């Protein structure tokens, strides 16, 4: 296996407050190989999007910051990289697609112009040349009648089409890494599958790595090579996609899996929800953040759980896996 | 786009008509007999009767209005009661100074205020933001004549950079004319700088929170490009609105400034005519100001459509 394209090491993000900084993401480490799709999974507010934004350097610096850790991308640490150098990577080697296609495009510019803009910025080609390439890109993301669509404004396109435009914009310069933050959450179910297939096809065609953020385990099953499960800002489990679906070790991951409806089960079966809600990062003490909601919590869970590695790089942060700790509370 | 403009044009007609009716009734509403008023204090009853006949004041309201409106449309606003000069001529010679002063004021205001508002929005806790917001309060609350006298005292009397007062018409040279308007324009611009800076700051703050600005950053665009193509253009609609309304208000409301600097403009003509009860001139001026507001609003509406394709289609 070649060296990983992206290597996030012990990343911590804190919220600036008048008092002590509040940890939002704690000690997150993962790596993405070239051409691989890694899914970042977790409930709202668990730090998925913050992790993604910190990679592309778009954290709102006035309220939060990377407190420690490294983000190695193509051999360079994005945390310490200068603003100008980071800007040159954005849109070129690193690209991002956001959750809200309806509001992520500038309403005043033709979509062709918006795609051309990124090509002009990073490649210095002429406006006319970039416009021609933009039409080709719209074609690539399977927008019919690309030439006409390129000269339309965002409000003239459907949500699915706008997300395709976003993807065309992100992939315009064949980035090494595409970050997609819940790219299909705002779309109709039928369109969701099309957009995901498109991302996966383009990944295969260009060898782009994909960091896909989602809370939808159905999407994970379809897209992921590997999965990182986040809970309250920390990684609770990390494994290959089969490891997660066949041998989930952490009670939180099992809870997520239990909360998916099964079509072939009886109609009267209830979905199993995880009781309670994610603790606020302000009130987070020491020990396992999930213990208040965990059916298998033990006294030992008051101390920080160890990150245990199993077969096939399957990591779990839980005392359950630790021999000798299996004493019910 | 053409349909939109035509629609806006037709929407302006009822406004102008309503103002015309009001202005016409003004003469009937003022206390006393308009014929006596127009004929003057020392006219004999037959003279008053002659005036009544000449102006058709003995006719019923509707034919009188139609006749009056017909004269207005052909450019005949009657004679000034005070100077006996045709009103149209009197107003026409006052337009140039006021128009130039308003243009200069609004240009200064935009050039100063938009960058200030932009920086204040980008660095909300920075020095420029604090100074701009504090200065805006000052700009709103300082009366124009205070600023005007302060400027005259320092820049005109002290440093002799500008004339103390007076207006040089365009016919005496463009530069001389603009030079004579610098101080009045600066003193007027304080209020508009405050207004436009505040509106720009608010509009830009709003736009900076938009997802498409984050997209622009994710594309790795240079900061300058993001500001011009993505931020300012989207913040333009409220800015255009205050600039337009400000310009229209300037054309009709520069009485104090024109008095302080003794500029023979529309503002002073308005004030003088009201004091002299020169009703034909007042009527013509009200119509003119209404017309200006309608035209400026039309231009603003058209600019909205130029900026925002969602309005255009």
TrEMBL record, chain A:
<keyword id="KW-0547">Nucleotide-binding</keyword>
<dbReference type="GO" id="GO:0015833">
    <property type="term" value="P:peptide transport"/>
</dbReference>
<dbReference type="InterPro" id="IPR027417">
    <property type="entry name" value="P-loop_NTPase"/>
</dbReference>
<dbReference type="InterPro" id="IPR050388">
    <property type="entry name" value="ABC_Ni/Peptide_Import"/>
</dbReference>
<keyword id="KW-0813">Transport</keyword>
<dbReference type="GO" id="GO:0055085">
    <property type="term" value="P:transmembrane transport"/>
</dbReference>
<dbReference type="Pfam" id="PF08352">
    <property type="entry name" value="oligo_HPY"/>
</dbReference>
<keyword id="KW-1003">Cell membrane</keyword>
<dbReference type="InterPro" id="IPR017871">
    <property type="entry name" value="ABC_transporter-like_CS"/>
</dbReference>
<comment type="similarity">
    <text>Belongs to the ABC transporter superfamily.</text>
</comment>
<dbReference type="GO" id="GO:0016887">
    <property type="term" value="F:ATP hydrolysis activity"/>
</dbReference>
<dbReference type="GO" id="GO:0005524">
    <property type="term" value="F:ATP binding"/>
</dbReference>
<comment type="function">
    <text>Involved in beta-(1--&gt;2)glucan export. Transmembrane domains (TMD) form a pore in the inner membrane and the ATP-binding domain (NBD) is responsible for energy generation.</text>
</comment>
<dbReference type="InterPro" id="IPR013563">
    <property type="entry name" value="Oligopep_ABC_C"/>
</dbReference>
<keyword id="KW-0472">Membrane</keyword>
<dbReference type="Pfam" id="PF00005">
    <property type="entry name" value="ABC_tran"/>
</dbReference>
<dbReference type="GO" id="GO:0005886">
    <property type="term" value="C:plasma membrane"/>
</dbReference>
<feature type="domain" description="ABC transporter">
    <location>
        <begin position="6"/>
        <end position="257"/>
    </location>
</feature>
<keyword id="KW-0067">ATP-binding</keyword>
<dbReference type="InterPro" id="IPR003439">
    <property type="entry name" value="ABC_transporter-like_ATP-bd"/>
</dbReference>
<protein>
    <submittedName>
        <fullName>Peptide/nickel transport system ATP-binding protein</fullName>
    </submittedName>
</protein>
<dbReference type="InterPro" id="IPR003593">
    <property type="entry name" value="AAA+_ATPase"/>
</dbReference>
Automatic annotation (TrEMBL), chain B:
<feature type="transmembrane region" description="Helical">
    <location>
        <begin position="173"/>
        <end position="195"/>
    </location>
</feature>
<feature type="transmembrane region" description="Helical">
    <location>
        <begin position="134"/>
        <end position="161"/>
    </location>
</feature>
<feature type="transmembrane region" description="Helical">
    <location>
        <begin position="281"/>
        <end position="307"/>
    </location>
</feature>
<keyword id="KW-1133">Transmembrane helix</keyword>
<keyword id="KW-0812">Transmembrane</keyword>
<dbReference type="InterPro" id="IPR045621">
    <property type="entry name" value="BPD_transp_1_N"/>
</dbReference>
<comment type="similarity">
    <text>Belongs to the binding-protein-dependent transport system permease family.</text>
</comment>
<dbReference type="InterPro" id="IPR035906">
    <property type="entry name" value="MetI-like_sf"/>
</dbReference>
<feature type="transmembrane region" description="Helical">
    <location>
        <begin position="99"/>
        <end position="122"/>
    </location>
</feature>
<dbReference type="Pfam" id="PF19300">
    <property type="entry name" value="BPD_transp_1_N"/>
</dbReference>
<dbReference type="InterPro" id="IPR000515">
    <property type="entry name" value="MetI-like"/>
</dbReference>
<keyword id="KW-0472">Membrane</keyword>
<keyword id="KW-1003">Cell membrane</keyword>
<feature type="transmembrane region" description="Helical">
    <location>
        <begin position="235"/>
        <end position="261"/>
    </location>
</feature>
<dbReference type="GO" id="GO:0005886">
    <property type="term" value="C:plasma membrane"/>
</dbReference>
<protein>
    <submittedName>
        <fullName>Peptide/nickel transport system permease protein</fullName>
    </submittedName>
</protein>
<keyword id="KW-0813">Transport</keyword>
<dbReference type="GO" id="GO:0071916">
    <property type="term" value="F:dipeptide transmembrane transporter activity"/>
</dbReference>
<dbReference type="Pfam" id="PF00528">
    <property type="entry name" value="BPD_transp_1"/>
</dbReference>
């Amino acid at each position: 296996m070649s060296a990983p394209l992206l290597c996030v090491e012990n990343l911590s993000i804190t919220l600036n407050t008048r008092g002590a900084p509040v940890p939002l993401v704690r000690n997150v480490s993962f790596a993405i190989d070239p051409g691989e799709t890694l899914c970042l999974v977790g409930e709202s507010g668990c730090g998925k999007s913050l992790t993604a934004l910190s990679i592309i350097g778009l954290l709102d610096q006035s309220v939060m910051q990377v407190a420690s850790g490294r983000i190695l991308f193509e051999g360079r640490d994005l945390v310490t990289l200068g603003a100008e150098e980071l800007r040159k990577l954005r849109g070129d080697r690193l690209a991002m697609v956001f959750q809200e296609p309806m509001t992520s495009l500038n309403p005043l510019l033709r979509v062709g112009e918006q795609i051309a803009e990124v090509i002009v910025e990073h490649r210095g080609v002429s406006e006319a040349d970039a416009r021609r390439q933009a039409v080709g890109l719209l074609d690539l993301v399977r927008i019919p009648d690309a030439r006409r669509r390129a000269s339309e404004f965002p409000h003239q396109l459907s949500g699915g089409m706008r997300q395709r435009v976003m993807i065309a914009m992100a992939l315009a310069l064949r980035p090494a890494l595409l970050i997609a933050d819940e790219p299909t959450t705002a779309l109709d179910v039928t369109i969701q599958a099309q957009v995901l297939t498109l991302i996966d096809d383009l990944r295969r065609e260009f060898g782009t790595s994909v960091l896909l953020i989602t809370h939808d385990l159905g999407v994970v099953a379809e897209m992921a090579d590997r999965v990182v499960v986040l809970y309250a800002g920390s990684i609770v489990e990390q494994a290959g996609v089969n490891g997660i679906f066949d041998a989930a070790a952490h009670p939180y991951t099992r809870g997520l899996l239990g909360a998916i409806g099964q079509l072939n089960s009886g109609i009267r079966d209830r979905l199993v929800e995880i009781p309670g809600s994610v603790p606020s990062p302000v009130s987070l003490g020491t020990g396992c953040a999930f213990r208040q909601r965990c059916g298998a919590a033990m006294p030992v869970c008051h101390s920080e759980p160890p990150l245990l590695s199993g077969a096939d790089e399957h990591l779990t942060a839980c005392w359950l896996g630790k021999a000798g700790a299996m004493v019910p509370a | 786009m053409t349909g939109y403009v035509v629609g806006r044009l037709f929407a302006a007609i009822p406004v102008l008509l309503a103002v015309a009716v009001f202005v016409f009734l003004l003469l009937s509403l003022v206390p006393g007999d308009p014929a006596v008023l127009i004929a003057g204090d020392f006219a004999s009853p037959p003279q008053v009767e002659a005036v009544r006949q000449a102006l058709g004041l003995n006719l019923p309201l509707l034919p009188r209005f139609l006749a009056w409106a017909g004269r207005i449309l052909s450019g005949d606003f009657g004679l000034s009661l005070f100077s006996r000069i045709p009103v149209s001529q009197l107003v026409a010679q006052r337009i140039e100074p006021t128009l130039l002063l308003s243009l200069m004021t609004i240009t200064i205001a935009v050039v100063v205020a938009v960058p200030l508002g932009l920086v204040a929005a980008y660095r909300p806790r920075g020095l420029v933001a604090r100074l701009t917001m504090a200065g805006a309060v000052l700009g709103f609350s300082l009366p124009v004549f205070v600023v005007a006298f302060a400027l005259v005292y320092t820049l005109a009397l002290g440093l002799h950079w500008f004339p103390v007062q007076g207006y040089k018409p365009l016919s005496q040279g463009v530069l001389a004319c603009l030079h004579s308007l610098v101080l009045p324009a600066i003193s007027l611009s304080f209020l508009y700088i405050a207004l436009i800076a505040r509106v720009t700051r608010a509009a830009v703050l709003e736009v900076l929170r938009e997802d498409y600005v984050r997209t622009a950053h994710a594309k790795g665009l240079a900061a300058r490009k993001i500001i011009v193509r993505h931020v300012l253009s989207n913040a333009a609609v409220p800015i255009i609105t205050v600039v337009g309304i400000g310009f229209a208000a300037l054309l009709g409301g520069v009485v104090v400034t024109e008095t302080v600097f003794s500029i023979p403009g529309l503002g002073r003509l308005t004030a003088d005519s009201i004091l002299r009860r020169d009703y034909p001139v007042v009527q013509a001026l009200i119509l003119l100001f209404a017309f200006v507001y309608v035209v400026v609003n039309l231009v603003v509406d058209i600019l909205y459509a130029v900026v925002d394709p969602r309005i255009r289609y």
